[in-house]
Structure formats: structure tokens, C-alpha cells
Amino acid sequence: MGEAVRDDDRDLVDPRRLDASARLVHAQGLNDADVDEITDLFHALRRWHRTSAAHSEASRRYMRLGENDMRAIRYVMSAGRDGAIVTSTMIAEHLGITGPSVTKLLDRLEHAGHIRRERHPRDRRSLSIVVTDETRAGEGVRRRRSRAALRRRRRPLAGGAPGRDEVPQPARGPARRRAPCR
Description:
62% of the residues lie in helices and 5% in strands. By secondary structure, it is mainly α.
């Protein structure tokens, strides 16, 4: 991406350039340094979102999965990290699809070796969905590569704003609440 494109893109998130936001900036008495820092943060978040979307798309293509298939795998992995036992009903609700559609999706993922259906440990009437070790290992490799690419992208960002020596990091630990992916 060229420098001129980046500057134009940055201008799109500068609140001083938008009528309603410009009035708010003035009413709040924010100085240019404050607004520049806010704009840098907005710009960094936009770049983060684009990088995340590109990573997701690359993973999806690499694994030869449809969008809902990939969302289902990521949901099962995420919920599993939080200690949840994932069922097909939970996946259907998360993806906003019907029971028969989630069954077909899980059949595809199981046939491709991405998930396993296992006995639910507390409910004999249902099955739990688990991502296979092979798929999890492949995701780990992609995640490490993505982190390395992200570190390379962060370097110029860290020194971008005066007085800032690091990029804000996502919250970690038990206080973090996971929003549903849509």
C-alpha cells in the first residue's frame, strides 16, 4: 500500500474532518495532539481489522473451507479455550443457521478431518464438537506466521506518535469478555 493511500485512509478516521465529529472535538476542548493520538488509534484499529480479515481469508483458503465452516471451527476453538463444551445447537445459534444446515456443515468438517463428534460428558442425549489436533496444529502455525507479520507491521506504528512507545495490546486474563463473532 503506497504512502499516499495510507494518508488518505488515515484522513477518513480523523474526527476533525467529519462535520459532526469536528463539532464534538471542539465542544470537548480536545487539542490537536489528543486528536492525533485518537486518529492514530483509529487508524491502527482499521489496519488491525484489515490484517485480521486477510489472515482469516488466507486460513480459510488454505484449509479449503467456506466462510461458515471457518467461523464454526474458530468458534469451537475459542469456546474450547474458555472451557465450554460445544454442541451443534451452540454452533447453529452462533452462525445463525438451522439445525439441518449445521448438521451438513459438521458432516463436511468431520469428513475433511477438521472436527470430531464426541460423547457429551454431561448430557447423554447430545454430542460435543471438538477441533482435531491436526487442524489445531495448522491454525497454530498460521497464527505464529500472522503474529510475525503483525510485529513487522507494528514497528512503524510504535514510533508514529510522539510520546508513544508501544501499540495498545488487547486485554488478557479473566476480565476479558468474549463478544460473539458474527
